Amino acid sequence: MSDRESDRRVPSAVGDGGVGLLTQADLSVPTHQIVDPDGSYDPEAVPDLSAEELCDLYRWMVTDRVFSRRMVNIQRRGELGTFGSTRGQEASIIGSAFTLEPQDWLYVGRAWTPMFMRGASMTDMIHFWRGIETAQQSFAKQNSQIAISIGSHIPLVAGLAWGMQLDDADAVATAYIGDGATSTGAAHEGINLAGALSLPALFFCQNNQYAISLNVEEQTGAKTLAQKALAYGIDAIRVDGQDVLAVYDAVQTARERVKDGNPVFVESVTYRLDAHTTSDDPTRYRDEEEVQEWEAKDPIERYRSFLQSEGLWSRIDHDSIVDDIETEFDEALATADELEERRVRELFAHVYDELPSELSRQLEAFEALLEERPEMDDYIEQRPKG
Amino acid sequence: MQATIVQAVNEALHGAMERDDRVVVFGEDVAESGGVFRATDELLEEFGSDRVVDTPLSEIAIVGGATGMAMYGYRPVVEIQFSGFLPPAFDQLVTNTSRIRWRTRGELTAPMVVRMPYGAGVRALEHHSESLEGAYAHIPGLKVAVPSTPADTKGLLTAAIRDPDPVLFMEPKRIYRSIREELPEGDHEVPLGEAAVRREGDAVTVVAWGAMMPPTLEAVDDSGIDAEVIDLRTISPMDTETVVESVKKTGRCVVVHEGPRTLGVGSELIARINDEALMYLEAPIERVTGFDTQVPLLSMEDFYLPHPPRILDGIERALTA
Ligand SMILES: Cc1ncc(C[n+]2csc(CCOP(=O)(O)OP(=O)(O)O)c2C)c(N)n1
Ligand SMILES: [Mg+2]
């Protein structure tokens, strides 16, 4: 039996005989915010972070922005398959990931810098978008993965959390999902499982207003995504995703509760400023006006004004932060470009622990064919740049 | 009108919606943005938001919803954005879509089409490359069609939308825009279940479909071998007769497919040839297929695909055995 508070709630009293509709209007879902868009804030509400940590938050947000910009640029030069920019979502991504501990599990949708925060390299992430299998291997070493099939990771995260629960581990399993992912069957089943078994699972939903072309208002009839959590018997927090301190505060609070077997769903209200991926044309489905409105809510700008008010801005040399990240990216790209020629054997590795005889036969025949027919080279190209 | 395969899809959808107002189109990003490949371009503008609908990100709801709507009397033509995202809806296909007619002894049916781009070679991420027609064709009650030319795309899709049974329509996205040809005007139908002989020959029969057709024809054309090339076009129901008649003539056969080898469509083709033309065979039937591995990610995906030299190798083996 769990000792969750929600389990102890008594069903409401029997009504007076009339049919009572329970509607969304009965629910009010507040949005947690610490720094107002105009830069004002209540000093009491600021989370307890050291000056150094507060500066780190800034550095990571800038890292996220620079990384997206550089990736979009190299994709345009034909040096990546595709890429999904996170511009506009930096507060959401960094504020949340800043709360995670190395022993936690992190399974992301649109969030790349958290992998760097956990020790993966930019080279790994370049490899990922170039379609090089070692990327997810590296992420796995940091208890992290990227899910491409939307929502597919949500039950996995419930299962990871289940293992943690059985182990009594001091850790949480976290699924980053998008607004679109909340509509999948996997989300329904995974979050419900977490609620039913009181698993240490944290669901961090970046509501960036769009699933490719579909606005969140058409994604669901629910007024908020946060409220969906209540139906699974788990708690929810809705937070201003452009306010890095509020996101940190929300997810930190959530993580504390999750650790004790109270799963929490956090909806972070944010916006994807760039295209869905480099192959998307957002002018087909949204107005420039709307984009401009959100440009004005730039999370990095808002946080900068906070740092200025706190007298911390003088500790930050923005240009040199950017220079360092650019250098890190240049070096990562150079390393990625040096990828050694790969062997055909790799295609057959890791399908099973042991290669079944039929697969060995297929591999040997293919290797022989490559020897016998050099004209295969006209059709087969290793694309180390994706 | 000169058109590519993806334009032919669009043309067939326009035609079907014009002719039959029970045809509705829905799926992810199909309406306002016209589909990530623009296959449903301009449908919203022409037919309105009752008949062309962007759904939530819910493959189960798309396929299950289409099935219910079809039972009710509509003709849904739904899009799964990439075939790699059909698996969540596999449950609906197996549990409901394919069984409505059977379950109700024909009282109810599910005439609907699930369209989806399939196959490797477009430099996309994981789950954007598979060719699992063999798995889908394994479901009784479901038809599976795979066009390889713009004209056939228009004709087969038109037939699929009219078909009284559910059809999975797998579009070869690697050649979505690489072939352009004159599209037959108006109401052009290519019957499901009929293969096409693309090239007549006496030396060997080569069977392929979808995105494997261009490399197969290239291998044959460049080699000068007198091969008969058959485009299967529909995987289920399979046109055994055209294949068997050809094999009886040539005595040799090669099957080319992109999907994994083991339990692939080639296995079934070979079994049928063995059943009906074993005594005509002069050599074992060869298979040139994808490997029994996951499709490699984009940097190495070329290695997975059967290319002309590999196909030619299979043909030569069939000829020399
Ligand atoms: C199951 C599944 N269906 C469709 C897709 C194609 N697709 C990729 S991203 C995306 C939209 C995702 O929206 P959301 O969950 O809001 O995440 P965001 O991209 O906005 O971060 C879609 C439909 C997919 N990857 N997986
Ligand atoms: Mg989104």
From TrEMBL, chain A:
SUPFAM superfamilies in the cross-refs: Thiamin diphosphate-binding fold (THDP-binding)
Is this entry keyworded Oxidoreductase? yes
Q: Oxidoreductase as a keyword? A: yes
| GO biological process: one example | branched-chain amino acid catabolic process
- GO MF annotations for this entry? oxidoreductase activity, acting on the aldehyde or oxo group of donors, disulfide as acceptor
What CDD domains does UniProt report for this protein, alphabetically? TPP_E1_PDC_ADC_BCADC
Q: Which residue intervals define the domain Dehydrogenase E1 component in the entry?
A: 58-340
Q: Which UniProt keywords apply?
A: Oxidoreductase, Pyruvate
Gene3D superfamilies tied to this protein:
3.40.50.970
Name of this protein: Pyruvate dehydrogenase E1 component alpha subunit
Organism this protein belongs to: Halobellus clavatus
Automatic annotation (TrEMBL), chain B:
Question: Sorted alphabetically, which CDD domains does this protein's record hold?
Answer: TPP_PYR_E1-PDHc-beta_like
**GO biological process assignments:** organic acid metabolic process; sulfur compound biosynthetic process
Which cofactors, if any, are listed as required?
A: thiamine diphosphate
A GO molecular-function descriptor:
oxidoreductase activity
Q: Which residues form the Transketolase-like pyrimidine-binding domain?
A: 3-178
Keyword Oxidoreductase listed? The answer is yes
Q: Which InterPro entries match?
A: THDP-binding (IPR029061), Transketo_C/PFOR_II (IPR009014), Transketolase-like_Pyr-bd (IPR005475), Transketolase_C (IPR033248)
Which Pfam family would be a valid example here? Transket_pyr
Q: Which UniProt keywords apply?
A: Oxidoreductase, Pyruvate, Thiamine pyrophosphate
Record bears the keyword rRNA processing: no
> Which PANTHER family has this protein been placed in?
PYRUVATE DEHYDROGENASE E1 COMPONENT BETA SUBUNIT, PYRUVATE DEHYDROGENASE E1 COMPONENT SUBUNIT BETA
* Protein name (record): Pyruvate dehydrogenase E1 component beta subunit
Provide the species name.
Halobellus clavatus
